[in-house]
Amino acid sequence: MGRFDGRVAVITGAARGIGFGTAQRFSEEGAAVAIVDLDESAAAEAAGKLPGTAVGIGADVSDKASVDAAIARVVEELGGIHVLVNNAGVTRDNLLFKMTEVDWDLVMGVHLKGAFLMTQAAQKHFVEQRYGKVVNTSSTSALGNRGQANYSAAKMGLQGFTRTLGIELGPFGINVNAVAPGFIATEMTDATAARLKMDVDEFRRLNAENNPVKRVGEPADIAAAVTFLASDEASYITGQTLYVDGGATLG
Ligand code: NAP
């Protein structure tokens, strides 16, 4: 018996990184999984690596028509939707005086508008069936991080979005929570190392030194928290943001 037997879980940005690690965990625990990512072939390839029923769907979470078509496909191909993980993300880091409007809009569009559009499309089904779980992906950067005014604002925005939906959707049997990862070893953080002209291993080592548990996080660390929040064990938890950062934000 898996915790997600008979459930359909949709994870955005899941062709790789944290999203793929999360998709693996849902699949191992019995869910049918929809991997939604920009590139349909990458999404389909990732879906093919999962142990259970899975589909890969190409969609841009910041585009309403694309999101509505993706959710319609999930329902048609997997028979419903019970869990939504808003994980898709991009960074366009720069100090404020150099940050372009394009980079501001892109980051807001993927993280904030993307979570809004995906959740709005999914909640119709959740409300009708009086059951649904939403987990949004915030970040420790929500608390402030040099060079990430756009990303930090979007990630803190997601925490407010989460709290508000906790209030609005709780009466309909829908839980809405967020995870806020610290440093997780993925292509996103490898790209940051490259931008800073640092060796990836050295960048990871330095980040590991920055938290009390003295290691960097892995996608599986986030997957464990996301699946807990999306499980029925967590049905009395809503509107919360769980920091999964090895204690990096403890001060
Ligand atoms: P990643 O390896 O860069 O993966 C992100 C995925 O999202 C990519 O497959 C990307 O596709 C996809 N994506 C980007 N824009 C999209 C869009 N408009 N629609 C659909 N999919 C889109 O990143 P990650 O490190 O796994 O991060 C996953 C989430 O965790 C993000 O929200 C990130 O902000 C958050 N997070 C990460 C860390 C960390 O340390 N890694 C820490 C805190 C929070 P393409 O490759 O085609 O662009």
UniProtKB/TrEMBL annotation:
Keyword Oxidoreductase carried by entry: yes
Any Gene Ontology biological process: fatty acid elongation
Record-linked InterPro entries: KR_dom, NAD(P)-bd_dom_sf, Sc_DH/Rdtase_CS, SDR_fam
Alphabetical keyword list: NADP, Oxidoreductase
PROSITE patterns: ADH_SHORT
Gene Ontology terms, MF aspect: oxidoreductase activity, acting on the CH-OH group of donors, NAD or NADP as acceptor
Domain Ketoreductase span(s) in chain numbering: 7-182
Keyword NADP: yes
SMART domains named in the record: PKS_KR
SUPFAM superfamilies linked: NAD(P)-binding Rossmann-fold domains
Family (UniProt): Belongs to the short-chain dehydrogenases/reductases (SDR) family.
UniProt cross-references to PANTHER family, sorted A to Z: 3-OXOACYL-[ACYL-CARRIER-PROTEIN] REDUCTASE, CHLOROPLASTIC, SHORT-CHAIN DEHYDROGENASES/REDUCTASES FAMILY MEMBER
Protein's UniProt name: 3-oxoacyl-[acyl-carrier protein] reductase
Protein's organism: Nocardioides lianchengensis
